[in-house]
Amino acid sequence: MSMFWTIWISVITLGSIVGCYILLRWNLTNYTGHPEGESMGHEFDGIVEINNPLPRWWTILFYATIVWSFFYLALYPGLGSFEGFWGWRSSNQDIRSLEESAQARIDAKEQGLIVEYDRELDYAAEKFDPIFEAYAQVPVEELVKNEEAVKVGQRLFMQNCSQCHGSDARGNMGFPNLTDDDWLYGGSGAKIKETLINGRVAAMPAWIDAMGEQGIKETVAYVLSLSGREMEENHDALAEAGKARFMACAACHGMDGKGNQMLGAPNLTDNIWLYGGSERAITETLTYGRNGVMPSFKKTLGDNKIHVVATYVYSLSN
Prior knowledge:
Oligomer: single chain
Order of helices and strands: HEEHEHEHHHHHEHHHHEH
Structural class: mainly alpha
Cofactor: heme c
Number of strands: 6
Largest sheet: 2 strands, antiparallel
Radius of gyration: 34 Å
Organism: Alteromonas alba
Strand order of the largest sheet: 1-2
Shape: elongated
Distance between the termini: 53 Å
Pathway: Energy metabolism; oxidative phosphorylation
Binding site for heme c 1: 161, 164-165, 294
Transmembrane segments: 7-24, 60-79
């Protein structure tokens, strides 16, 4: 934080405290011209206003809060860039990566700083790590029968995966539906864990240069026919021509178009589409290609928590 903002915040904060003290002293002095304990000459609905001083207990408490505020500002960060004499902070600031966060935790402990976020992480690890370790000893296909473990996995899913796959795990355009038992890389417990641990990088190349617009149109017609659908015009002729062109696609999707989980190539015959199955969407996919990335969660969650998340995901389609 710059010196300007440090001074600005300090002046406002300290000025407010001093202002409260001045206001309190002002109200402790009788400027009314009426003796204390006597009527002010005002009456409202039978209620007479008496010139009474502020209650003594209330005044003492107000003084105490003012004194405490100075101790608080001296111990804790609160005046701009001043970090306080106690060495407490809510979290390590200016962190931009997991590596920086891990190093900042080490540096804070070496410097004797009290970082509240780090303390909460340590407490959570001490309390919950043994639970996750116990869950990790049970295969996903067996752990799915443990309702409490599945609920824990669901909460972790909501925190880490729902941003892309949705809170109901039904996905969105470009993000797979995890509830329909249609898997690009396989839906076993081991495969789901593999995806979460290592992430996935998929690439569908653009074919416009190799096929041209007419070739794309013919291939789209054939791909539509694989799932029992047709184009509006001249479908049969286009599909027949596209069947020969599909040989270039068969390297990944297979001769029958049923895909290849080793490569993450989708099944084109089941009418389940990651980027949309309309004529326009398929044309766009073939023309420009697609690039999908599933990030690795190994550093974020660790193996044991990934095991529990995989259990929840496995439960959605089993």
